[in-house]
Amino acid sequence: MSKRGVMIQYFEWNLQNDGTLWNDVVAQAQSLRDVGITAVWLPPPYKGMNGKDDVGYGVYDLYDLGEFDQKGTVRTKYGTKDEYVAAVQHLHDAGLHVYIDTVLNHRMGGDETEKVTVREVDNDDRNHVVSEPYEMSAWSKYTFAGRGGKYSTFQYTKDHFNA
Question: Which pTM value belongs to this model?
């Protein structure tokens, strides 16, 4: 007998921005299992640079799952942290595997600018430098002030990024 399963991607780019996705998961967990689904793929659950309008790929704070007032909102596009935790629990209770779409390299929405030294490169050959070094401001400092150090006190600065 085959041990293959069926995964459903439980999101898409143009979902309504109404904060109800996690509650929808709770309501439908058992019926997903009943129709033969064995795994559910959920969208990025953390706060993006555009707050409740971000689908999760403009990563701002991986520790904010809809718990802190950051980027103009507490909830994410999909709901609050408590609703997210409940959704995952209901999926597990229904016997479903849960996969979370997590993006680690799209850091966006810095809290403060810092002076950085840059050089321009040729658009057609990024290995060919076309300017002398010069200084500019970059949104490279992440203080996560709304979270106030809860879960992690780490803050990104220009020293944590490279081109």
Answer: 0.89
